[in-house]
Amino acid sequence: MVALSVIAIDGIVLLVRGRKENLARLENAFSSEVPDASQIAEAFFQGLYAYGGWWSLNYMAEEMKNPSRNIPLTVMTALPAVTVFYLLVNISYLTVLTPKEIVSSVAVAVTWADKVIPAVAWIIPLSVAVSIFGALNSSMFTLGRLSYAGSQSGHLPVLISMLNVHCCTPAPAMIFSTIIASIFIIPSDLIALTNYFGFSVWLMIGLTCASLIVLRYREPNLHRPYKVFLPVAFVMVAISLFLVLAPIIWSPKGVGIMKGNIGSKTLICKTVN
Fold it and tell me: Which stretches are transmembrane (predicted)?
């Protein structure tokens, strides 16, 4: 958050000064061809990944104090805060860098720092490393609980539901999740990995929201710690359908579905679960 604040404040200062070259970059920021449906879906995969904390929070509902109050409260406060910060940071990037520089940069924040604060540019990659460590810690913590709950429900081997006797940590579940994550990063293609992850996650989100709608009608009297406004579930299902179907129809390779002809037959290979 400190690094994002530095970038956002510097961007505001540069805009207030109103240099012509800074303002000119913003004027042409969106001058490009209209993307097709698969490109829009891929853009959503890339962007929504940054807002993924809201689903990590749900994994911890069992260990939360008063989840019926704290989960909605956290989502309603954290998401707007993240949105505002990311908006200011992207404005700052466009104030300093051209769209072509942003797309070609391996690490946009570092490229920005080299141009704006070269004397202390090392602060930004250090902050990114700290942020990644925090995000990884959170992901391991939550995904371990996901595998643990799945094992308790009989969806995974019973070994994964075992706890460490000294600290009650689901160590087997966390080791299992870490092994799976380590396999995923072997190709080292972050964009492709994010697309695969986004595709599979939004498929699961769509099915989850659809099941919520079904349960609302089949089990209207079921105890619910907090009740989701039903139109929100319908909107989420519609969004999920678009994000899942658009890449399959227009760009199947982008989500790991490859087609090839073998003799007179067509082989379809799915590389995502």
Answer: 73-96, 116-136, 156-185, 197-217, 229-250
Instruction: Take residue 95 and report the two structure tokens written for it.
Output: 């104030």
User: Considering the chain, what percentage of its residues have pLDDT values greater than 90?
Assistant: 8
Kindly report each contact of residues 203-206 with a partner whose C-beta sits within 8 Å and lies 24 or more positions away, as own/partner.
Answer: 203/240, 203/244, 205/55, 205/236, 205/240, 206/236, 206/237, 206/239, 206/240, 206/241, 206/244
Phi, psi of 202 (to 5 degrees): -75, -25
The per-residue pLDDT for range 67-111, each reduced to its tens digit, is 888 888 888 888 888 889 888 998 888 888 887 888 888 888 888
Vertex 250 angle, CA 244 and 205, to 5°? 5
Task: Say which DSSP state 158 is in.
Answer: G
- Please give the Cα distance from 113 to 93 (Å, whole number): 10
Contact assessment for residue 98 and residue 25, using Cβ atoms and an 8 Å cutoff: yes
Q: Give pTM, 2 decimals.
A: 0.67
Read off the pLDDT of each residue in 55-64 and give the average, rounded to a whole number. Answer: 75
Structure tokens at 54: 């809201």
In angstroms, the CA 145 to CA 142 distance is 5
Residue-level pLDDT at 76: 86
Q: In this structure, what DSSP letter does residue 157 have? A: -
Backbone angles phi, psi at 261, to 5 degrees: -85, 130
Which residues, including other chains, have CB under 8 Å from residue 135's CB and lie 6 or more apart?
A: none
Closest residue by Cα to residue 29 from 104, 100, 114: 100
Euclidean distance between CA atoms 231 and 188, whole angstroms: 39
